[in-house]
Amino acid sequence: MIEKYVDVIGEDELDAIFKIAEKIKDLSILHVNSTKAGGGVAEILNRMLPLMKELGLNVDWKVIRGDSEFFNVTKSFHNALQNGIGNIPSEYFKIYDKWQENNLSEIPLDYDIMFIHDPQPAGLIKFKKNNNKWIWRCHIDISNPYPPVWDFLRKYISQYDSVIISVPSFGRDDIEIPQFVIPPSIDPLSVKNRKIAETTILRILYKFGINPEKPLVTQVSRFDYAKDPLGVLQAYKLAKRHVDIQLLYVGSPATDDPEGEKVYNEVVKASEGDKDIHLLMLPPYSDLEINAFQSASSVVMQKSIKEGFGLTVSEAMWKRKPVIGGNTGGIPLQVINGVTGFLVNSPQGAAHYIIYLIRNKEVRNRLGLNAREHVRRNFLITRELRDYVMTIAYVSN
Ligand code: UDP
Q: Mean of the pLDDT values across residues 88-112?
């Protein structure tokens, strides 16, 4: 299966990955995160683990346990870290610590290489016993955190051997361990991203009542304020005065995101009365549907206000779609303004570019081609795999 990537990246690139992997094949590697499905981290791990195994690596993946109280705490930490604001009661820190300990029976800590993803399980490091290597893989924007939460977390992060961030500007000068920049990636051969037949796309559009004749503007995102779903609706409504379009907003629940339902209800309310707004809450692993929706769209949006990376941006770009993206986090790595899409800072800006792109098919096509090539060179899973393997080789030396 991994050989199939030769068609996309070439033989030399694949050989290089195998050569580096050979050096680390005796090491045991564990990935730990907080959800099996929903969101970008689970998406990457679901694709990356089988490939690592095919490289001959001894790799496993475990998910930490938690109750709703714990995930409320970690979601408020997440918001405080990304948005720089918060109101965190002191007992939240105790609840966080309690659940690190509760997870000791679930998560083995003695793999040679421990990849700990995001803040939720980061405190496990305090139970480190031997001199194995711990890497904190941070997928969120920590460049401007709410200090009390960052200071609490930093005590743990400082004990790691290294940190991986997604975007150079997320780097911190208040931790002394090495920081590597590894942008996330998409899998071009997955059900979500491979080319699918036009008839499949049409079948799925019909199933969800979407008109294949009317231009479609889509955002695929969890129902999270950081993804600005209400801003997406506002942009659509402004644009709709000038161009006849449909809006599709697709989200799915994530077990580690307790805010989703509240945000979903607000979006339902704001969409009432407009038959051209399609609001879908799909189960996880609806990859074929997501593929069809992205493929059928004229324009894809990712109007985030805060974003770690935004896999949905690369997913759409790979399908040759121009993306209107919020000018934040990892989105500007992907959306090069005027070349692969447009960066915006407001619903008004987004509406402007929706109108422009809907009216200019030739521009859509040109940006779409650039977008695909930009992803091919920079954001495919084979590149991320090579970066991971190199990082493991480096820290284990
Ligand atoms: N996703 C999905 N169904 C949904 C919403 C999102 O499969 O209804 C996927 C999306 O295609 C992408 C991932 O979840 O692969 C979201 O990753 P991203 O980095 O964009 O955002 P995150 O949720 O990690 O903040």
A: 97
Give the full edge-to-edge strand order of the sheet including 299-302.
277-281, 246-251, 216-220, 299-302, 323-326, 341-344
Distance (Å, whole) CA 290 – CA 275: 20
Q: Count of H helices and E strands in the chain?
A: 15, 12
309 lines ligand 1 (CB under 6 A): yes
Angle between helices 287-296 and 311-318 in degrees, nearest 10: 60
The rounded Å distance from CA 38 to ligand 1 centre is 6
Distance (Å, whole) CA 295 – CA 291: 6
Whether 65 contacts 102, CB under 8 Å: yes
Q: Say how many CA atoms lie within 13 Å of 348 toward its Cβ.
A: 0
Q: Which two tokens stand for residue 115?
A: 């990849």
48, containing H or E segment? helix 40-54
Q: What's the ipTM? A: 0.99
16, exposed or middle or buried, with CB in 10 Å at 0-12, 13-18, 19+?
middle
Distance (Å, rounded) from C-alpha 201 to C-alpha 199?
5
> Rounded distance, CA 216 to CA 213, Å?
9
User: Which ligand 1 atom is nearest residue 192's CA?
Assistant: 11
Distance 200 CA to ligand 1 centre (A): 21
- Nearest CA to 188 among 363, 1, 393? 1
- Ligand 1 within 6 A of 294 CB? no
Average pLDDT over residues 143-153: 97
Q: Which residue has the higher pLDDT, 93 or 253?
A: 93
